[in-house]
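Lecture 7 notes: from sequence to structure.

We start with a single chain of 370 residues. Read the sequence below before looking at the structure.
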Amino acid sequence: MKYKIFKSDVLLIILLGLIPAVVCQFFIKDPGTRSIHVSNFRYGKDPSVIKCNRGDTLKLTFSTKDTGHSFFLEEFDIDAKISPARDFVEVFSTKDPTQEPYLTQELTFIARHDGLKNYLVSKSNYKCHVWCGPMHAFESGKLIILPNTLLMFSLGCIAGIFLLWIRGLLTGKTTANNIKEEYRDLTGKNGILKKILSSRWLQIIVSILAMMMIYIVILTSLFGTKMSGRNLGVLLMWAVWLFLLVAVLTPLFGRIWCTICPLPFFGDLLQRRSFFNPLTGKTNGLNNRFFGLSLKWPAVLRNNWTKLIFFMILATFSTTMVANPKVSGLIVIFLIIVPTIMAVIWELRAFCRYICPISVFIGPFARMSP
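Now the structure, written as tokens:
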């Protein structure tokens, strides 16, 4: 019964999301023709947001205020090269770069997708694919085709969650309370799963794979293309890893990332002098023998403030890290060196416990994971 209550709540949220998503399809304006001039400059585009209705015919003209730029809109197979020396733009195909480009003063296309995408995809990003400086990645904009179906669906789902929260306040019952007793020990009746999860080999293997990925991120960030949109290191770190951490690993598996995180890998190896278990013996009251000074972390800093400050510093400069691949690579190297040095000075995983900016996010949200 408790599971059915939870299931009905999920269905209610989805239903309330579908209602505005479907209704908005009946309020589409008739397609028209719009003429828009796009001004390009370091480091941006004007307008930065183009809104139109589904089926509108867009006629774009371009100009540049400084150097060469491009208008890259992959969903519509457009890569227009813009030069300050001429009024024409040279248009290439994004799907087939070998296709012969053509010159035009006015670029025309219809704001419409094929098939089901026409109803689901409402936002596309246009950007510049001509390197024009260190903040090149910020030279982008958005094409929004109304109605924005996914936005309406999301707003409906948020309304559903809000209504369930209000219901919980009024009735004193929440979904979390209803399913609290439904938790099960996944390893209790599965001996094989328990052996796998408790094996040190699993952590070592996954950590080594993570270190290999970090190695690729560092190499491609430092020595790859300067264009962050095409840099593999930036893509792996800020698109793949960050998405998995926020959307999959933390919500579903709690602090599992801390088990396989490659940042303290060398520090742990240096401190333990072993891939698996620490050496037997005593170190400052600890039941194992560790390499290094094994000092106690200052009592005044045994809180979350240091981690929070470190997190805020990285968040402040996150746009620079995304825009400049070399900065991303250097930050990753820094985040590997710091825990390695700290492992020699302070006992146990001092970096993970008191400094790591990632744990600022993982810690609170991991408590809500199933």
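The chain has a mean pLDDT of 85. Keep this in mind for problem set 3.
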